[in-house]
């Protein structure tokens, strides 16, 4: 019964995954994660923790975040309420897609998830009020290893949706540019 559609994005290591829904007059049922399938079809990783955040205002930007080894995180992201544009930026030196980005709109209606492996900066902007995001991570949070890159860095050129205003934390407003990042990750 487990059925998922895996969409290869322009950066091959980032994948959009949409679980099948089996519905009737009551609603639907969907298996949104299965460890053995994920390991065989997406990435052979272990998830250690699930995180959830609520963003009250549309236009809330969180990111672009990543963590350094040994706490580098892969993330499997989904939206439980509202809608968001989820973004991954390749920050692996030596990668042919270094500094490039991909995105996917995530919402409860489309049921899609985005796999963002370690070596990518991750962020999102909310498109609706009271958006709830849930994501699995492959390593726990470590303040000492927490890093970021500026969300609106012109060198990266993310095409964020037009919003009346963007809401960011002070931390995210002060992240360095891509050109200022050391070579934290190398393509292996």
Automatic annotation (TrEMBL):
Pathway: Carbohydrate biosynthesis; dTDP-L-rhamnose biosynthesis. Keywords: Isomerase. Pfam families: dTDP_sugar_isom. It catalyses: dTDP-4-dehydro-6-deoxy-alpha-D-glucose = dTDP-4-dehydro-beta-L-rhamnose. InterPro entries: RmlC-like (IPR000888), RmlC-like_jellyroll (IPR014710), RmlC_Cupin_sf (IPR011051). It is an enzyme of class 5 (isomerase). Gene3D superfamilies: Jelly Rolls. SUPFAM superfamilies: RmlC-like cupins (SSF51182). Its EC number is 5.1.3.13. GO terms for molecular function: dTDP-4-dehydrorhamnose 3,5-epimerase activity. Transmembrane segments: none annotated. Homodimer. Belongs to the dTDP-4-dehydrorhamnose 3,5-epimerase family. Catalyzes the epimerization of the C3' and C5'positions of dTDP-6-deoxy-D-xylo-4-hexulose, forming dTDP-6-deoxy-L-lyxo-4-hexulose. This is dTDP-4-dehydrorhamnose 3,5-epimerase. It comes from Rhizobium beringeri. The gene is rfbC.
């Amino acid at each position: 019964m487990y059925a998922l559609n895996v969409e290869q994005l322009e950066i091959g290591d980032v994948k959009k995954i949409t679980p099948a829904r089996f519905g009737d007059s009551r609603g639907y049922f969907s298996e949104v994660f299965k460890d053995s399938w994920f390991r065989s079809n997406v990435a052979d990783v272990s998830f250690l923790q699930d995180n959830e955040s609520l963003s009250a205002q549309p236009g809330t930007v969180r990111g672009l975040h990543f963590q350094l080894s040994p706490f580098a995180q892969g993330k499997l992201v989904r939206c439980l309420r509202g809608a968001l544009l989820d973004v991954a930026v390749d920050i692996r030196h030596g990668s042919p897609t270094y500094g490039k980005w991909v995105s996917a709109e995530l919402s409860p209606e489309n049921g899609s998830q985005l796999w963002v492996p370690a070596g990518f900066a991750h962020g999102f902007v909310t498109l609706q009020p009271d958006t709830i995001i849930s994501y699995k991570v492959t390593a726990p949070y470590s303040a000492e290893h927490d890093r970021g890159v500026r969300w609106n860095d012109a060198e990266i050129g993310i095409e964020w949706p037009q919003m009346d205003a963007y809401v960011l934390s002070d931390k995210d407003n002060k992240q360095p540019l891509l050109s200022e990042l050391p070579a934290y990750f190398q393509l292996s």
